[in-house]
């Protein structure tokens, strides 16, 4: 009989990047890499669990912007072309390494992975990954939750509650469209919480959300069971807090499993290592070297003295680390259960892209972990937040503390000297959108199209990814350009609306470029709908 529960939560999100105005666009590779290295491997893992009748369950957030990219026909076509290039490159690598016994097995591994991925995507999944994830949810292997529509950082949008409500409402509506049911929970973008957010969540039918550790620990009154139980807000929305110990095992750059010397080195890629003329057809359209996804080394040693990657050694280490993680959760539960007087829940949330993309063996580790928990012990049982609430429906009422899971735990990552310039413009646009939605209730024809597209542009401008990139400096120019572009398009459309003079060609061009949420209704910005 289990003494406690482990709730694994994977947060899968990418900003909406789609550029039909170009034949090929560098930043679309983020999506293609995540499909190849994370999302399709996760589906393959779920298929293996299904085949072997493993009684497993975990929580997966597929953000609305990511779902819209997965469902987009243009991006699907471009992904197949991307895979074709990878297969072509891996074939060349098989020839290049044919006399090198250190690298030939690795080159063969990549060739088989890429060809298998293409076959799965086209033939097994018919390019429709959403329906595959939905099937696993319907079978009980997954609990899929929603997110803010474009991952807007809600605390910094909260000057206008209609804007926050729209992020939640559009996210919920998108979930209904893709998964044909109501979402039970929500991943708050960046786990960002502000006082009063729970009321807006309740209004949209959300049953629970997840917080960073101190969002629970600094709550009022003090939480009786720490982060090892569910709680309710005053508005009867449940919440759960992240467990620090299980997080550190995976996230820590010093102590975390992904840094082990047996694992593949992310930063040694043939896109940078090989001769430029050889690699030129497979890198950025403008000729800049980029990661191709083919990497031959493991983490061991200094950058230029690393050892060749050994898949068997890496798999043995992943199994060992899965066993260690399970053992630590067993000991945690054995201590907590008698101390708390109830079976604890250990919430372990991670970015999904860590598994497979940044940590190449991460999906294998997850597969080993799920199987070990199901077969090798009976102290810890896998669960989801909603299942735990069915076991313990009565919980303490607390007021969560403002918090996020970003650096320093609050809002500084998304509001600092590198990105603070965007917020006056976003806040002004939010006010304009709410006013336009209320002033034009029941609009039809071109006015309705313009209002709906204004909603899309505002949502895209609000994405927390742009502020995050500006802070880190990675792709900061692209992030700033995206912020400016969406705000410019918003005001261009608003000007048409106010003057009652419409440039149909320009409207169609914007609709073609920013086609996220085709089902959107601008009334999401009217608080009485």
Automatic annotation (TrEMBL):
InterPro entries with a match to the protein in the record: 57_glycoside_trans_central, BE_C, Branching_enz_MT3115-like, Glyco_hydro/deAcase_b/a-brl, Glyco_hydro_38_N_sf, Glyco_hydro_57/38_cen_sf, Glyco_hydro_57_N
Binding site for substrate: 242, 259, 405, 465
Domain Glycoside hydrolase family 57 N-terminal stretches: 7-307
GO molecular function: 1,4-alpha-glucan branching enzyme activity; hydrolase activity
GO cellular component labels: extracellular region
Top-rank lineage group of the source organism: Bacteria
Domain (1,4-alpha-glucan branching enzyme C-terminal) ranges: 425-525
Protein name per the record: Glycoside hydrolase
Taxonomic lineage: Bacteria, Pseudomonadati, Candidatus Omnitrophota, Candidatus Ghiorseimicrobium
């Amino acid at each position: 009989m289990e003494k406690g529960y482990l709730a694994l939560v994977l947060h899968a999100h990418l900003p909406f990047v789609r550029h039909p105005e170009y034949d090929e666009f560098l930043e679309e590779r983020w999506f293609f890499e995540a499909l190849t290295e994370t999302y399709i491997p996760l589906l393959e893992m779920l298929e293996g669990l299904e085949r072997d009748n493993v009684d497993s369950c975990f929580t997966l957030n597929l953000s609305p912007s990511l779902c819209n990219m997965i469902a987009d026909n243009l991006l699907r076509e471009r992904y197949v072309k991307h895979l074709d290039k990878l297969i072509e490159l891996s074939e060349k690598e098989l020839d290049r390494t044919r006399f090198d016994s250190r690298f030939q097995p690795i080159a063969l591994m990549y060739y088989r992975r890429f060809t298998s991925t293409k076959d799965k995507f086209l033939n097994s999944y018919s390019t429709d990954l959403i329906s595959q994830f939905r099937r696993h949810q319907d079978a009980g292997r997954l609990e899929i939750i929603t997110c803010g529509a474009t991952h807007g950082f809600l605390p910094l949008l909260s000057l206008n509650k209609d804007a926050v409500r729209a992020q939640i409402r559009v996210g919920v509506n998108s979930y209904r469209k893709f998964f044909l049911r109501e979402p039970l929970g929500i991943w708050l973008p960046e786990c960002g919480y502000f006082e009063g957010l729970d009321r807006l969540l309740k209004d949209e039918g959300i049953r629970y959300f997840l917080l960073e550790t101190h969002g629970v620990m600094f709550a009022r009154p003090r939480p009786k069971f720490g982060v090892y139980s569910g709680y309710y807000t005053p508005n009867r929305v449940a919440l759960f807090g992240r467990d620090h110990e299980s997080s550190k095992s995976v996230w820590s750059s010093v102590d975390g499993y992904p840094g082990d010397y047996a694992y593949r080195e992310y930063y040694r890629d043939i896109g940078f290592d090989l001769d430029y003329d050889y690699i030129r057809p497979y890198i950025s359209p403008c000729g800049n070297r980029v990661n191709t996804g083919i990497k031959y080394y493991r983490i061991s040693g200094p950058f230029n003295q690393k050892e060749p990657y050994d898949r068997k050694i890496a798999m043995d280490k992943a199994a060992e680390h899965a066993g260690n993680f399970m053992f630590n959760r067993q000991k945690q539960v054995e201590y907590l259960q008698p101390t708390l007087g109830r079976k604890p829940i250990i919430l372990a949330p991670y970015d999904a892209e860590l598994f497979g993309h940044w940590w190449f063996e991460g999906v294998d580790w997850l597969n080993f972990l799920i199987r070990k928990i199901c077969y090798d012990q009976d102290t810890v049982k896998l669960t989801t937040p909603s299942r735990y609430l069915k076991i313990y429906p009565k919980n303490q009422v607390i007021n969560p503390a403002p918090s996020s899971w970003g650096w320093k735990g609050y809002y500084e990552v998304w509001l600092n000297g590198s990105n603070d310039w965007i917020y006056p413009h976003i806040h002004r646009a939010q006010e304009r959108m709410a006013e336009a939605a209320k002033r034009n209730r029941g609009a039809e024809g071109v006015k309705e199209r313009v209002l709906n597209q204004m909603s899309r542009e505002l949502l895209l401008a609000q994405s927390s990814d742009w502020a995050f990139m500006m802070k880190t400096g990675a792709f900061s120019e692209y992030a700033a350009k995206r912020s400016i572009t969406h705000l410019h398009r918003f005001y261009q459309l608003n000007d048409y609306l106010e003057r009652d003079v419409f440039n149909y060609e320009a409207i169609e061009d914007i609709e073609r470029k920013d086609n996220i949420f085709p089902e959107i209704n601008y009334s999401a910005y009217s608080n009485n709908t």
